[in-house]
Amino acid sequence: MFLVSPIGSNIFANSWKWPKMSILTLQYRRLSFQESFFEFLENTLCALLCCSTMSAKSAISKEIFAPLDERMLGAVQVKRRTKKKIPFLATGGQGEYLTYICLSVTNKKPTQASITKVKQFEGSTSFVRRSQWMLEQLRQVNGIDPNRDSAEFDLLFENAFDQWVASTASEKCTFFQILHHTCQRYLTDRKPEFINCQSKIMGGNSILHSAADSVTSAVQKASQALNERGERLGRAEEKTEDMKNSAQQFAETAHKLAMKHKC
Q1: HSE-up (13 A, CA, CB side) for residue 81
Q2: DSSP label at 200?
Q3: From the centroid of its chain, how far is CA 21?
Q4: Along the 263 residues of the chain, how does pLDDT read in single tens digits?
Q5: 208 in Cβ contact with 157 (< 8 Å)
Q6: Residues 164 and 179: beta-carbon distance below 8 Å
Q7: Are the C-beta atoms of residues 67 and 73 closer than 8 Å to each other?
Q8: Kind of pairing, strands 138-142 and 193-195?
Q9: Alpha carbon distance 152, 59 (integer Å)
Q10: Has the keyword Acetylation been applied to this entry (predicted)?
C-alpha cells in the first residue's frame, strides 16, 4: 500500500496548472510576434515605396526638365479622387499609369516657374510630359483639412481644376511647403490663395525654414567650438610660456649656485 503525503499531492496538483499557463504565454507571445512582424512588414513596404518614389522623381528631373535647362524643385505622386469623364468616342487608351505633379523653374533669367503633369505608363520606364501651367495661372491651393494630416488636395488654375490624392500625407505636405515658398519667391503680383492648409505649411515650421535654421545652428556651434578651442590653445600657450620662464629661472638659479660653490 502506497501513501501519498499532502505535500506530494499538492505538488502533483499544481503541476497540472503549468501547461495551461504555458499555453497562454505561448499564445500571447505568438500574438506579440505577429503584431511585431506585421508592423515590420508595413514599415518595410513604406520604406520601399518611399525609395521607389524618390528614384522616380530623380528620373523625372533628368528626363523631363534637365534637357530643357529647367530645375525641378519638387514633385508629388498623385491619383484622381474622382474619375475623369472620358468622351464617348474616345478609344485607344494606353492603360494604367502613374501621375506626378511637378514644380520646376528655368535656369535662365528671368526665372519662370511652372507646374507640370507627368505620367509613366504601365510597362514603360520612361516618363511623358502632359499638361503644363505657368505658376501665374495657379489661383487656389486647397489642403482640404487644416486640422489633420490628409493626402487629399485640390489645384485650381485659370482653365483647369483637379482633385488629387497624394501617395502619402507627408509627401503632400512637403510639396505644399515647396509650392508655397516658390509662390512667395517668384510671384510678385497675383499670388494663389492657400486655403484649408495646416499651419506648418504656411508658418515658419516649413522644411525650408527648418533647413535654414539647422544650417545656422550648425554654423553657430562650429564657431563656438572654434572659439572654445582657441581659448584652450591660448591658455595652453600661456601655461607653456610660464613653464618656459620658470625653467629659465630655475636654470639661472642653478647656474648661480653652481658658480658660488665652485668658487
Answers
A1: 13
A2: H
A3: 46
A4: 444 444 444 544 454 444 555 555 555 556 565 556 555 555 554 554 555 567 899 999 999 999 999 999 999 999 999 876 655 444 455 679 999 999 999 999 999 999 999 999 999 999 999 999 999 999 999 999 999 999 999 999 999 999 999 999 999 999 999 999 999 999 988 899 999 999 988 765 445 555 555 555 665 666 677 767 777 777 777 777 778 777 778 777 877 777 777 66
A5: no
A6: no
A7: no
A8: parallel
A9: 25
A10: yes
Q: Is the peptide bond before 87 cis (omega within 30 degrees of 0)?
A: no
Q: Please choose, from the candidates 193, 195, 151, 200, the residue with its C-alpha nearest in 3D space to the C-alpha of residue 172.
A: 151
Question: Where would I find the H helices in 71-123?
Answer: none
Length of the chain: 263
- All three cell numbers of 186, joined, read 517668384
Which residue carries 505568438 as its cell?
Answer: 30
Task: Show the cell assigned to 46.
Answer: 513604406
The β-bridge relationship of strands 138-142 and 128-134 is unpaired
Local structure of 175: helix, strand or coil: helix
